């Protein structure tokens, strides 16, 4: 009996130690032990990440010598295991490599682009989507995913706005954290989890003119109040790594910027995750003009705090000598190596370096497709529905489906879709035919074959079909290639002959429903004005078709809200709701047409707006219609005189007063009315998506720490200054009840 107890005790101890193997104590000891056995070259090798799509023989050689720490873009599980076996069994210390990939909005089953996921305002759903993406990636040997992208994006000209969660700080923070939790779960390294990598640190969304890779001009205060908070949120959520941005920040490129990488990320936040450069970014320090050569680039980047070198071989080429010549202290190298090894321990690679055996084969499963459809459904924003054209009723017998995005299985997926399978895409045309052709006759004439198409030879056929139809549904927007990295646009209007197509359709005198699938908010004032109803679906992913079809026919009630302001004109960019008042906020706004001839220069007044396009967006952040109506009662605050350490508590009653079940997003904005520095006219401080059956009411309680109303004062100190704050509670950034509180 005693023997059995001893064995049991020993087993339990081993179990706890191995479980604790992912806990700091044991991991740090194991890292110490490993590092004590590693040569200088092997340590530098851990900081070397290469693209597996090229120079594979060279990579295999590095695997044998321990000269590489991570391989990107290999997604064949057998190839992953073949390469991993070399690292584990043939290298001097058997350190596994970590295989990485851009898994930005799905792997095989594509979710809506992140801008669309943001439009759901539903963190739980985004978490579920991230779980699915992680699982599909894990099935292919990926253990490190380069997402979430949480660059606050306020310029629709920037192609990468597609990858972000939009213009708002809180929305990027909460959606980014949801993705991190979905990728890593509470047990990072467990089967079907991947390590997250928040990107791009930091301020990439502020590229001048919306031109990708351009310089930025960001004050430290903007950094701290706008661009850094989402990264702090994901760091607090346990995000395993951060990727440095291509751009410079106040003249210093992010990959060599010790202020953000060391002073803030490490010293202020105590972040212990890995920092990895963006693709080639360390080499680009020479293009930026801050490094004379590769050796200087290596020194600047490592000393600033960039742990891993993506795809340039600069670290392996120069760090050993820089350290032997004592130009770079070995301690800097050791800190970076320790973080990389810790990432691998947290990823479970030392315990389970190979793919499987815990695979579940759940790639592109029916459950995953159903989830992708749910996310797509909640990502659709109804901007307009004049005369309640939608949902289409039983009187509709013939529907014309048209437009370049009606049956575009590739473009519907959007950007970052390398592992997708377009044969799985269900387009709107597919879904309308398969789901509704028994009830209505579906006519189809694309009119244009792709978004840039200038060939109007199909317009004759289109005109004829339009005359037969009861209702016309036009699917417009952008080809995927016009969005994403390196794909900025100066003119964000609809390309090709899409505008002419809408002109033709509107002349048919039939109700016109326009659906826009895009990777950004496009300018479409004319097209929208000619449409009776407008659905904005960004690029909705694999199951965008059924999601849209069910909304059009009323099986689903749209609940999306705009994560970005929709501009009237690109010239308004950057455009966002949380703007400053200025000393001359837009007052009496005239349009070009009502300016008198030979007018004296002062007749138009002197306030901040554009004479030709005004100052407001066509549709504001947070806006979105529903097939039902919701009422939000006057807020009832518990107290309106609070100290900085208090929590503002108030309640509202949300009522579904309409005729359909649906979901509303109750949004809470705050304005600091008078402060020592200029403050935004509104800032989103909380939001909650609530589903109510028709006629149902629900009391909602909100609790906002007054500390969340903070700013950075002239001394760069985070403070909440005393005085009046206005709290707005509504269903967009321009609506709602308000009440004042006073902070003493
Ligand atoms: C790209 C992107 C980055 C991506 C990386 C690896 O250039 O900027 O978002 O994760 O390279 O593909």
Tell me which CATH architecture of the largest domain applies here. Answer: Alpha-Beta Barrel
**Strand order across the largest sheet:** 11-16-15-14-12-13
Number of strands: 27
Structural class: alpha/beta
CATH fold call of the largest domain: TIM Barrel
For this structure, what is the CATH class of the largest domain?
Alpha Beta
Characterize the main sheet. Answer: 6 strands, mixed
* Total tally of structural domains: 3
Provide the CATH superfamily of the largest domain.
Glycoside hydrolase, family 3, N-terminal domain
In percent terms, what proportion of residues is strand? 15-25%
> Helix coverage percent of residues?
25-40%
Unreliable residue stretches: 9-23
Overall pLDDT metric:
96
Oligomerization status of the protein chains: single chain
Provide a count of the helices.
21
Shape: globular
- Which ions, cofactors or small ligands are bound in this entry? alpha-D-glucopyranose
**End-to-end C-alpha gap:** 69 Å
Radius of gyration from the alpha-carbon trace, in angstroms = 27 Å
Describe this structure in words.
The longest helix has 19 residues, at 2-20. The protein is globular. Helix 2 crosses helix 15 and helix 17 crosses helix 21 (544-552). The protein is α/β, with parallel strands linked by helices. It has a six-stranded mixed beta sheet with strand order 11-16-15-14-12-13, sandwiched between helices. It has a five-stranded parallel beta sheet with strand order 4-3-2-1-10. It contains 21 helices and 27 strands. 31% of the residues lie in helices and 17% in strands. The termini are far apart. The protein folds into three domains: 40-346, TIM Barrel; 372-552, Glycoside hydrolase family 3 C-terminal domain (Rossmann fold), CATH 3.40.50.1700; 630-743, Immunoglobulins (Immunoglobulin-like), CATH 2.60.40.10. Alpha-D-glucopyranose binds at residues 102, 146, 199, 278-279, 485.
């Amino acid at each position: 009996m005693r023997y059995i107890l001893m064995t049991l005790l020993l087993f339990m101890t081993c179990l706890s130690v191995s479980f604790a193997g992912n806990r700091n104590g044991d991991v740090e000891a194991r890292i110490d032990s490993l590092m004590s056995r590693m040569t200088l070259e092997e340590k530098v090798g851990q900081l070397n990440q290469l693209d597996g799509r090229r120079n594979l023989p060279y990579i295999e050689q590095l695997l044998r010598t321990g000269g590489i720490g991570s391989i990107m873009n290999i997604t064949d599980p057998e190839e992953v295991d073949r390469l991993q076996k070399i690292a584990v069994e043939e290298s001097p210390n058997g350190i596994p490599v970590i295989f990485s990939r851009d898994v930005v909005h799905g792997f095989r089953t594509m979710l809506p682009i992140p801008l669309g996921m943001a439009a759901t305002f539903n963190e739980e759903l985004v978490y579920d989507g991230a779980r699915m993406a992680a699982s599909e990636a894990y099935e292919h040997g990926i253990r490190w995913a380069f997402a979430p992208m949480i660059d606050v994006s306020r310029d629709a000209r920037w192609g990468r706005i597609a990858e972000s969660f939009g213009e708002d700080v809180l929305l990027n923070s909460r959606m980014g954290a949801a993705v991190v939790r979905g990728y890593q779960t509470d047990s990072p390294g467990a089967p079907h989890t991947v390590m997250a990598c928040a990107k791009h640190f930091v301020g990439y969304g502020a590229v001048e003119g919306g031109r990708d890779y351009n310089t930025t001009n960001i004050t430290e205060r903007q950094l701290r109040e706008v661009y850094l908070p989402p990264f702090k949120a994901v760091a607090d959520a346990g995000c395993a790594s951060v990727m440095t941005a291509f751009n410079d920040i106040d003249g210093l490129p992010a990959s060599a910027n010790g202020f953000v990488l060391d002073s803030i990320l490490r010293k202020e936040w105590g972040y212990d995750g890995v920092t990895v450069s963006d693709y080639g970014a360390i080499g680009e320090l020479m293009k930026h003009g801050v490094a004379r050569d590769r050796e200087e680039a290596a020194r600047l980047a490592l000393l600033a705090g960039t742990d891993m070198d993506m795809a340039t071989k600069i670290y392996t080429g120069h760090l050993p000598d820089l350290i032997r010549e004592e130009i770079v202290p070995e301690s800097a190298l050791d800190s970076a190596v320790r973080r990389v090894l810790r990432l691998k321990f947290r990823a479970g690679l030392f315990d389970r370096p190979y793919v499987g055996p815990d695979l579940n084969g759940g790639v592109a499963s029916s459950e995953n497709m159903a989830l992708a459809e749910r996310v797509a459904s909640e990502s659709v924003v109804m901007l307009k529905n004049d005369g309640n054209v939608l949902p289409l009723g039983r009187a509709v017998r013939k529907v014309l489906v048209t437009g370049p995005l009606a049956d575009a299985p590739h473009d519907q997926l959007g950007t970052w879709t390398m592992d997708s399978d377009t044969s799985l895409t269900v387009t709107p045309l597919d879904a309308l035919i398969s789901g509704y052709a028994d009830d209505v006759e579906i006519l189809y004439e694309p009119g244009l074959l792709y978004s840039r198409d200038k060939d109007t030879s199909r317009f004759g056929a289109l005109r004829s079909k339009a005359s037969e139809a009861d209702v016309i549904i036009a699917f417009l927007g952008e080809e995927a290639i016009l969005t994403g990295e390196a794909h900025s646009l100066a003119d964000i209007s609809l390309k090709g002959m899409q505008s002419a197509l809408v002109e033709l359709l509107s002349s048919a005198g039939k109700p016109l429903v326009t659906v826009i699938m895009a990777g950004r908010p496009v300018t479409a004032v004319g097209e929208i004005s000619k449409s009776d109803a407008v659905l904005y679906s960004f690029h909705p992913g694999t199951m965008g078709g059924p999601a849209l079809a069910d909304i059009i026919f009323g099986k689903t009630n749209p609940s999306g809200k705009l994560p970005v302001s929709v501009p009237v004109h690109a010239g308004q960019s950057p455009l966002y709701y949380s703007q400053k008042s200025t000393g001359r906020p837009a007052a009496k706004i005239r349009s070009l047409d009502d300016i008198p001839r030979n007018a004296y220069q002062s007749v138009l007044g002197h306030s901040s707006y554009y004479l030709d396009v005004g100052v407001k967006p066509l549709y504001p952040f947070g806006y979105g219609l529903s097939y039902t109506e919701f009422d939000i009662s006057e807020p009832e605050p518990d107290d309106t005189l609070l100290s900085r350490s208090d929590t503002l508590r108030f309640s509202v009653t949300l009522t579904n007063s309409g005729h359909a079940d649906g979901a509303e997003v109750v949004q809470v904005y705050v304005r600091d009315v008078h402060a020592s520095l200029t403050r935004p006219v509104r800032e989103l401080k909380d939001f909650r998506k609530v589903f109510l059956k028709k006629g149902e009411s629900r009391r909602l309680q909100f609790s906002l720490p007054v500390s969340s109303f903070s700013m950075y004062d002239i001394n760069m100190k985070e403070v909440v200054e005393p005085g009046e704050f206005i709290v707005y509670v509504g269903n967009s950034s321009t609506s709602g009840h308000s009440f004042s509180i006073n902070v003493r």
